[in-house]
Amino acid sequence: MDPLFLNADDALLIVDVQKDFLPGGSLAIETGEEVVGVLNRWIQAARECGAKIIASRDWHPPGHTSFKQQGGPWPVHCLQDTEGAEFHPDLQLPDDAEVVSKGMRPDRDNYSPFDNTGLADELRRQGVQRVFIGGLAQDVCVRQTALDARRAGFEVHLIEDATRPVDPKKGECAVDEMRKAGVFVDRTQQAGG
């Protein structure tokens, strides 16, 4: 799929492209940095056509319930106001991109920017019908975001080459699950291909 497929009534939703999820981070996803170039092409296309650009981020307080020290499944990651919670420095988010923070309550995790944030209502208010999703991680937050967007009634497109999983096998299962839920699974058309 060509990013030029976007139009002004669409939303591009970039999920958690944060330093802690990239090589060298506390919850690094192998080759996670490879999504940045693909997403930048989609960001440019979204800017040119006037599509909404939203970036979600994990924004955890110390002692968050998802951390292993509290009995959760994950190492400490994306602590509020730390370098690890920053977006990848090469991600070309425009200044007017909407940032949706999630996982801010210490006693509750949020894998999706649609979970108790009002995002679905806001997108509907703006007339959005299609949501294009890329980011990290394919088998965790991207998966839940796509499923929640479908449940909210949006036409959802997963930009498959703009995502990477924590676990490749679980990533394949997540893509199958998304597809079965009615998510369109697209790959960006490469130049000459």
- Identify the strand order in the major beta sheet: 3-2-1-4-5-6
* Rounded mean pLDDT score: 94
- Secondary structure: number of strands: 6
Strand content: 15-25%
The CATH class:
Alpha Beta
What structural keywords apply?
single chain, 193 residues, alpha/beta, Rossmann fold, 6-stranded parallel sheet, 6 strands
Descriptive account of the structure:
The chain is an alpha/beta fold. It has a single domain (3-186), classed as Rossmann fold (3-Layer(aba) Sandwich), CATH 3.40.50.850. Helices cover 24% and strands 20% of the residues. It is built from four helices and six strands, in the order E-H-E-E-H-E-H-E-H-E. The chain has helices at residues 35-49, 119-125, 141-151, 168-180; strands at residues 10-15, 52-58, 98-102, 130-136, 155-164, 184-186. Strands 3-2-1-4-5-6 form a six-stranded parallel beta sheet, sandwiched between helices. It is globular, with a radius of gyration of 15 Å.
Topology:
Blueprint: E1 10-15, H1 35-49, E2 52-58, E3 98-102, H2 119-125, E4 130-136, H3 141-151, E5 155-164, H4 168-180, E6 184-186
Parallel strand pairs: 1-2, 1-4, 2-3, 4-5, 5-6
Quick summary:
The protein has 193 residues and is of the alpha/beta class. It contains four helices and six strands; from the N terminus they run βαββαβαβαβ.
